[in-house]
Design brief:
The protein has 494 residues and is α+β, with helices and mostly antiparallel strands. 47% of the residues lie in helices and 20% in strands. A hairpin with a 2-residue loop joins strand 12 and strand 13 (407-413). It starts with 6 loop residues before the first helix and ends in a 6-residue tail after the last strand. The chain binds guanosine-5'-triphosphate. Residues 199-243 form the PAS domain.
Length: 494
């Protein structure tokens, strides 16, 4: 179905037709012979047409007015429906149109929002009500600045108005010199930004005050930011560290921060201070991935002092352990060490079924030695014999111990009686060859040893003491047999 032509289309057509008829009437009136007989008819038609044109013109006017009214209503409804406020000022900066949202934003200015009100009047009304907190106390200056900037900003103006409402104000000049302003409430956004800024400030303070070094890294491991603790730890100023690779500080890093982040509890690394001294640091790295960033944050804790203390403690403990199992006079093991070693080796022998042997060694007529040469020389003699015994025991792990007074005990692991006798003979020979003078000895004028040898395969349910008793019995035999010799315990020990 074709649409009817609007009145503004008919009007020129009817007007043209009317003018044509008028022309014909005038031509007839001026004596055109062909038209003369039709003159009354033409005049009547022309009059009717003129009346029709007038009626049409009136109709067209009413139609256009209704159309304009509808368009205006549509526009007003449209701008009222916007979530933002809209205000339109003419070239003289007088209010031409505005929407409901503007009144909602400034309910106390309902009276001032009249068409024709100037922008300055409206702003002054706000200032008088204290509606612009940032202008308090300097209203005139603020107004002058606001007018100067009006319609020229490229970015929206952020303004706080009453009741802590924040607005983004967009103003644009129209080609005819007017100004269209849009005010969008962004209070939630601003408050979110304020919360974010507060939490960032909080975080910054924490990072600044942290005792551990904190460093942010790009995905390659280059340092982006470092905190003061990091500067202190490595001795480099932040400016020098930014952009450098973390490997400048930490040795033997894995390929990238991604690998570091995998070790959730972190790892220990050796590191370097600027002055060259070695550090030990614990490094734990976390990945930070957001919609716009992908970085890593590392926390570096200096373990150097703790490590030094641990080393000192370990050394002190080792010394203490050594001291508690070492004979202070001779430097060989003491009785405690012998007892501990015997327990361990007894169990091992029982488990493995391997033989275990021991020598109980006694210096002959040592009382006479002391009496003759004095205790200091006696001590020296004990030291020399201990050194000789140690040199006779081939395996480093086998303990030579001072068992008490002038008695020594030697434990020989994985050694049967024959093997133990070989060692015992070596000890006798060694001391004999050393020819330590013993003028008071009734045997001969040199220090000699008596040795008791015992060996067995241990049984777990028998006490290790049995081996000592057997060696002691054998030693007794040596003494009884005239000293400077060894005797072996030939009966079954276990
Ligand atoms: N100088 C010194 N003498 C010690 C030490 N411990 C024990 N003695 C001495 O060693 C001597 C041991 O004497 P005895 O048990 O009678 O044995 P002995 O004189 O060697 O006689 P036999 O063993 O029978 O040959 C004692 O005089 C102790 O004082 C020591 O640490 N230093």
């Amino acid at each position: 179905m074709s649409r009817p032509l609007p009145p503004r289309t008919w009007l020129p057509l009817a007007l043209g037709l009317g003018l044509l008829l008028q022309l014909l009437v005038w031509l007839g009136a001026l004596g055109a012979e062909a038209l003369a007989p039709r003159l009354p008819w033409l005049a009547g038609l022309s009059l009717a047409l003129s009346l029709a044109v007038a009626a049409l013109a009136l109709f067209a006017l009413a139609y256009e007015r209704a159309r304009a009214e509808r368009a205006r209503t549509t526009l007003e409804e449209a701008i009222d429906a916007l979530p933002a406020s809209v205000e339109i000022f003419d070239a003289r900066d007088r209010l031409v149109a505005f929407n409901k949202r503007l009144v909602e934003l400034y309910p106390h200015k309902l009276r001032e929002f009249q068409r024709g009100a100037s922008f300055e009047q409206l702003v002054r009304a706000s200032l008088e009500n204290g509606g612009v907190p940032e202008a308090l106390g300097r209203e005139s200056e603020w107004l002058a600045e606001r007018k100067r900037q009006r319609g020229t900003q490229t970015a929206p103006l952020l303004q706080r108005v009453h009741d802590d409402i924040w607005l983004h104000i967009f103003e644009r000049r129209t080609p005819s010199g007017g100004i269209v302003g849009v005010r969008l409430e962004v209070s939630e956004l601003v408050r979110e930004q304020q919360r974010l800024a507060a939490s960032q400030a909080h975080l910054q303070a924490l990072i600044h005050a942290a005792g551990s070094g904190i460093v942010s890294l790009d995905t390659e491991g280059h340092m982006l930011e470092v905190n003061p603790a990091c500067e202190r730890l490595f001795g480099f100023p932040a400016a020098e560290l930014r952009g450098s690779h973390l490997s400048m500080l930490v040795n033997n890093l894995p390929a990238g921060p991604q690998d570091l982040a995998r070790a959730r509890d972190g790892q220990e690394f050796s590191a370097r201070h600027r002055d060259g001294h070695e550090l030990c640091v614990h490094l734990v790295v976390a990945e930070v991935r957001t919609a716009t960033t992908h970085i890593f944050v590392g926390m570096l804790t200096d373990l150097s002092e703790r490590k030094r203390q641990e080393l000192r403690l370990r050394q002190a403990n080792e010394l203490l352990a050594r001291q508690s199992t070492t004979d202070g006079l001779t430097g060989v093991g003491n009785r405690r060490l012998f007892d501990q070693a015997l327990q361990i080796e007894w169990q091992r022998s029982a488990r493995a079924g391997t033989p275990l042997a021991m020598l109980l060694v006694d210096i002959d007529h040592f009382k006479q030695y002391n009496d003759h040469y004095g205790h200091v020389a006696g001590d020296d003699c004990l030291r020399r014999v201990a050194t000789l015994l140690r040199s006779c025991v081939g395996r480093g792990g086998e303990p030579v111990c001072r068992y008490g007074g002038e008695e020594f005990a030697v434990l020989l692991v994985d050694t049967d009686l024959a093997g133990a006798q070989v060692v015992a003979q070596r000890c006798l020979d060694s001391v004999r060859l050393a020819a330590i003078e013993h003028a008071a000895s009734p045997l001969r004028p040199a220090v000699s040893l008596s040795i008791g040898v015992a060996a067995c395969v241990a049984q777990a349910d028998h006490p290790a003491q049995r081996l000592i008793e057997a060696a002691d019995a054998a030693l007794y035999q040596s003494k009884q047999g005239g000293r400077a010799r060894m005797s072996s315990h030939m009966q079954k020990v276990c």
